[in-house]
Amino acid sequence: MAIRSNVVTLILAGLLGVLVITLLTKKRENHAVTVAESPAAAESAPAASSVAAAGASAAGSVAAPAKDLPPTLARPLRVAGVGWELIAPALLQNDGIEPNEKSAFGKAGLRLSLSVVDGAAGANQALSRGGDDDAGSDIVLVPLSSFLASYEKLRALDPVIFYVSHWSRGREVLTTRSGKPLDSLPDTGRIGLAPAEHDPATFAALFLLDAAGVEPARIDLLSSDDPKAHVRARMRQTADQRGGVQQSDAVLSTAEASRLIPIVAVAQRGFIQKHALILKTFLLGLLEGQKVLTEDAAASARKISKLDGAPEPVALLGGLGELGQVSLSENAELFGLSGRGAVTVESLLARGFRLWREAKLSNTPGPESVVADGRVVALLIRASRVTQGMAPPKVSVPEKPTAALLVHRARGKSLDEDALLGEVGLLAGVFPRSPLLITVHRGGAVDKKRSEDLARQASDRFGLAPGRLQVGKARPRAQTQATFEVLPIP
Predict the structure, then answer these.
(1) In whole angstroms, what is the distance from residue 164 CA to residue 326 CA?
(2) Stretch 275-304: mean pLDDT, rounded?
(3) pTM of this structure
C-alpha cells in the first residue's frame, strides 16, 4: 500500500513538473484592442481638466462633432469680411485672396477663398448664397450689432456665432447736443437719438444710454441731421471716410467701452456641426496671421495693399488701428468655457436683442435656441493646451476721482443687489481699463459698510483687479438706492 502511494505521488509530481515547464516555455503573444475613434475625439482626448469641466457645463454648445465627418471640403472654404482689416490676418496666411497650395493654409490642407463685402447687406447676401456659390460665403466676419440687426432676415438660415476675432475700439462715437456727459440728460421725458447709418454705432448708443438710465422706450429715433436730437451716434472719422466725427467731439466711445462691439465669425449651425475640424484649421491660421500683424503691422499693410482692390497702406493701417485682437484665452471666456467675467457672447446677445426690440428696431422676439456655439473654440483650446483664463487688466486708480464717463443708478423702493451686481459686472467688463466706484445710499448719506460689502462681492464674483472697484461718494437722486460710476481711463 505504501509502495502504491509513493508511485502515485511520483506520477503527480512528474505531471506538475511537465505543466510548469510548458507554462514557462510557451510563446506569449500580445493582444491589442482596437477602438474606432473620430478625428475630433482624438484631438479632444488630452483636454485639460479646467476645459473639460467647462465643456461639461456647456454641453450643448461644445458637443464633439459627429464621428463620420469628412476631414476636408471638396471645394474651397469661402470667408467674407465687411472690411479688408477684418480679413487681414487670413490674407497674410493665405498669401492672397484665392486658394494657394504654397501658403500656410494650403500646407495645412485648407483651400481658402477670401472676399470683402459691402457692409451688413453684402454679408447677408454672401451667407445666404452659401459657400457652394462662387459669390457666396460659408463664414462672414461682421460686428455683433450687424448680426443682431440682420438676424430677423436670416433666421431661416439658422446663423450662429462661433468665434470672436476682434473688438471695435474707438470707431463708434456718441456726442450730445450740450457737449456734456450722458448723466446730464433728463431723468424723465423723451430723448431724441440721431442714429448712425452703421449698426455698430446705433447699438453702442442704445447700450450706453440704457446703462445710463435712458431706457429704449424713452428714445425717439430721429433723422441723422435732426437738430433736436439730444444724442448723436456716429462713426469716427478715418482716413478714407468723410462725414464722421473726431474723437475729441465724443462724450463717450468704444475707445473707453472697448469690449462692447465684438467682430464675430458667423456660419450656419449645420455647417459648424458638420465641419468643426475645418473651422478649427481656419481659426488656427487666423491666430497665426494675427501674430504676424502684431509683429509688423506696417509691412503687413504694404503686402496686402498690393492685392487687387485692396486699400492703400495708410487706410488699412487706420482700420487696423481701430481694432483690438482677441486671443484664444479671451474667446474661452467669451464662450463661457473659463473665467468669471460677465461679458460673454451670450450676455451681449441677450442685451442686444432686448434693446433692438424695445427700440422698435425689430418686431420679433429673440431666438428660441442659443445662437453662440463654442465647440470650435473648445477644440482649439484642447489642441493648444490652454488651461488658464485671462488675467484681469491692470487699472490705475486716480487719487482724486474725476467726473464719471457713465453713471448707472439703481432706482426703486429697495435695492435689488443681484441686479446691481449683474450690471456692475457687465459694465466693468465693457470698460476694462476704467476705475470704478460704487455708492450705496442710506437716506442722504453713504452706507459705507454696505458699499464695501457689494464692492467685495463684485470683485470676487467677476475677478476684478484688486482695488479697481472702490467705495464712492456720489450724491443720491430721487428714488436712487445705489450709484455705480465708470471713470475715465487714467
Answers:
(1) 7
(2) 96
(3) 0.83
